[in-house]
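Running log. JK asked me to keep both predictions on one page so they can be read side by side. First protein, sequence followed by its tokens:
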Amino acid sequence: MKCCWSVLPLALAGWLLAGCSSTPLTTIPQPTVVVAPAIPLPPEPMAAPLPAETTGQVLLRGKSRWIATSWRELPGFETDALHEAWNAFIKSCERPASVFAPLCPEVRRLSIGDAASQRAWLQQRLQPYRVEPLQSSTATGLLTAYFEPEFEASRLPNADFSVPMYQPPAGLSPGKSWFSRRDIDTLPEAQATLRGREIVYMADPVQALILQIQGSGRVRVKDPDGTQQLLRLAYAGNNGHSYQSIGRWLLDQGELRDASWPGIAAWLAQNPQRINEVLWKNPRVVFFKEEPLSDFDASFGPRGAQGVALTPGRSIAVDPDSIPYGTPVWLASQGSAATLQRLVLAQDTGNAITGAVRADYFVGWGEQAGELAGRLKQALQLWVLWPKLPG
């Protein structure tokens, strides 16, 4: 299905003003247990899970403070359709953190359980902790959303598809700067290094930028023999430059008063000779790897930073310095775009996802997902659900 441009007016404003969720794999240490008042202890006491549910106990975790609370504090806990989250829970058990690994056989057995059994298990085996910033008692943060775009593409360049999407170049080193976006477009030596690394060709540079901002995407590719196939372009690295918002640059230059996509799109249409100038203000380039999509794989999202496939509506990107990958999290957020009170799994991260009470909500793929991702920006509360000792 060709991506409808009607998605972009709602969706791209948020993308161009903030970075995307992306998927580098990371090993995350476990939190340090403390008792209020919160004073960090060495990591050794965290070897065992926490005892039975209590309130008031405090855990320090990087940029966050976790405060033990009652299950009654979690909005909507009694009404959430937990079976929708259980697939995401099982996905996290493919690469579980050590503290969750002993629970995974029970999680898998409960995949055929009813909601009451799943809810009772959560209460028996996990302890909820309200997440707060380390230096503040404010428990309210920010929720945004991201999605997987879908476009048409071609294996070979032609009059309709001329913008290449690349595999990582040979010699690319994580953490080291490589050629910038402008260099790649203009320097013969950069282009020579990337020659032969093309995966597919997009219709225009804005589509390519959207894929790079989101960190992955689906492309319906026409092969030279005329056949079509659905592929995923999955994150495989970047050129080591920091993301810079072109929407913010246009605002700062006084070119726009409103950096919504209708405003940006209208400006680009009126100034086609300046498209490269604007795109080059974001020097960051993302490289991809090709993944075939079976019917089964197409029912899940791309792999997040935990290394497991994301589940629409049940996976979030977090700051791993505050919440470890694979942690079940209770999310509560209410705004004009959506009212959410549900179990989710921390399975991804992103450049703009920093701080204790901060999450990016994976809403899926396609036109409707893009529209929701563009509109969702609202207040957020989070509770981590952490293992406790039986009895």
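And the second, directly underneath as requested:
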Amino acid sequence: MLLLAAGLLSRGQPALEAVRPQAISAHVRFLSDDLLEGRYSGSPGHAVAERYVIAQLAALGVQPAGEGGGWLQRVALRQAKTDGSTLAASGAELGEAVIAGDGGASRDIEGQLSFVGYGLDDLGDLRGKIAVVLAGAPASLPPTERAIAGSNEAKLRRLGAAGAIAEVVLDTPELEERRPWVMVKRNFRNGQTFAADAVPPMPVAFLDLRDSERIQKAKTARLSLVQAVRAYESANVIGILPGASPEAIVYSAHLDHLGICEPQVKDPICLEIARGFSALAHRERSILFIAFTAEELGLLGSAWFSRHPTIPRERMVANLNFDQVLPAGPVRELVLRGAELSSLEDHVRAAAAELGIAIGPDPVPEQSFYARSDQINFARIGVPSACLWQGFGRDAAYEAAFKDFRAHRYHQPSDEWLPAYDWEAAAQMARVELLVGVSLLTGERPSWKPGSPFH
């Protein structure tokens, strides 16, 4: 790590000095404007956001790297609305379930209920059965491993391989505390969306805490599935800043959101990182920038890119993804969130040390964050990835601001651009991520550590 850090700050100084906090604020203010109507994937507002990002990148000398020599990569989506669907269980009076469809025909699904814990191992023979699964993963696992194990997408693949015909997901007190039932209902208010080339293997019924207890007394269940399916498209925005080598460091953030007022700090930080790299006289490796669509709908834009990359996977050195950036106080501590799984950690630690930022443990491991944003799809195709996050760093004011944000503004109309936000803190995050990239320009290509889930 000492070798990595040698001269890092001096090499990166032109890039760091190019970052402008006021520009991040201005980008956020535009992208969160109600005129963009929340940037829902495939919407006119999302298309406006795409063109805004393209214009900003082009002005910095970034070149198009999407399909056919253009900026965009089209993502084919399917939306299944399940209004009128119901779940009934023998011997258990259930309330209203949230039901996610599979894009197939409307039909009735009946079967024996089989409780399979967290749905991780020893599933047994589930042919013709409805699997009952606890949400998440055991708290005994380390944070990043817990996040990976708790991914319901991975659980569905295992359940499908074991023969299950539907899944019922049980709520838990811990999950209810950090993700109230009203948020689940809000997340599925527009139905279930999936990529056209990755249809879910089965429908899923989510239950609230009360019904999660009641259904455990039942032996069989009947899911009356009513589906109305529509096909539509959205797009990823992809650009590249060429370097001496075609190998590329990938910076990403998602462009879509769910509702009016909801801001976007991630892409503006990526834009300032592009400004920083464009200020360097020489770049040993190339820099790829991606603004993903449909992250809020299930990481669909990044999953599509992982299956249909516009540059060969072998050229991708590492991915640094942005999400849940809250500019509410100075950056004193970084949480690795995935970097610890590979030697990418060495580059992160070297950059943080140069900037006087500590590395700390994840203060909210129950959020299972690593599997909940786009970096996971890079890891799944073998590209070391991380979503660095601002830790609390014994800063009580920042911790309180984060908890207030999660409780009262996250994915709600009250989440909007505010002049009181600490835009210098957002610039700090941009600078540390920039310096990680400067280290990666000449440093050893990251590799997975032995024992990593992706090794």
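Observation for JK regarding the second prediction: Residues 141 and 318 are 25 Å apart (CA to CA).
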